[in-house]
Amino acid sequence: MSRQLEGRVAVVTGAASGIGLASTEAMLQAGARVVLVDRDAEALARECARLGPAALPLQIDLLDAAACASLVPRALALAGQIDILHANAGIYVGGDLVDADSSAIDRMLNLNVNVVMKNVHDALPHMIGRGTGDIVVTSSLAAHFPTPWEPVYASSKWAIHCFVQTVRRQVFKHGLRVGSLSPGPVASALLADWPADKLAEAKASGSLIEPADVAEALMFMLTRPRNVTIRDVVMLPSQFDL
Ligand code: NAD
């Protein structure tokens, strides 16, 4: 891949695993410096040592409100600028609503919705001040085809989908692009929280894709000419039974 992101700085949340790690790797390969934000200090240290000096670790538990608010100033202190925000960190609670733990629902809504909105909100003054910036949120196929076995998760992604589509139209005039990625099932650690029967079905039907597939879609979005915004990439598995 050519170094199309040379000189740019990306901030990726949930960067120590899965989609965030693949997105980090793709942007590093394209010449960007990347601030990896994650709560998992050990995984961050391991991955940044492997990825080299352009990978800058920033350990933050985004569910800690004060730590979450420190993300943008700390990323700017580390890297000097933010050209790309990949607001990606998210967790999963699925299965029957009646069985769900209400504190787990709170954590998921907080991380998947509130934190994403705050991360985007906090990055805007810097990006608007520079007159350029790309924001990509990891949504989900669930935002488009809500499935009955994950009502709260699908709702969290639906909320974020709406947020992206509205903010995009507010900040376009400042030279910013805002879009989302909506993959179906991706082979990552998150799938450990899926209902076992649904995971078995996804595996049996061959509908799982790899984090690197999602990172390719991200790179497609980032490398379009600046007058083109890809507002959402929906990655629908051909075999998916909707
Ligand atoms: P993952 O579990 O592999 O990675 C998530 C990362 O987020 C981990 O490194 C974890 O440590 C970090 N994280 C979790 N809570 C955090 C917190 N409070 N503060 C900071 N970091 C935190 O999962 P993934 O599949 O790569 O998921 C990434 C995003 O993709 C999520 O928003 C998820 O909803 C979305 N998504 C995943 C799938 C899938 O099937 N895996 C499909 C569609 C969308």
From TrEMBL:
PROSITE patterns to which the protein is assigned, alphabetical: ADH_SHORT (PS00061)
Alphabetized SUPFAM superfamilies for the sequence: NAD(P)-binding Rossmann-fold domains
One Pfam family it belongs to: adh_short
InterPro entries, A to Z: NAD(P)-bd_dom_sf, Sc_DH/Rdtase_CS, SDR_fam
Record-given protein name: SDR family oxidoreductase
Organism from which the protein derives: Aquincola tertiaricarbonis
Organism taxonomic ancestry: Bacteria, Pseudomonadati, Pseudomonadota, Betaproteobacteria, Burkholderiales
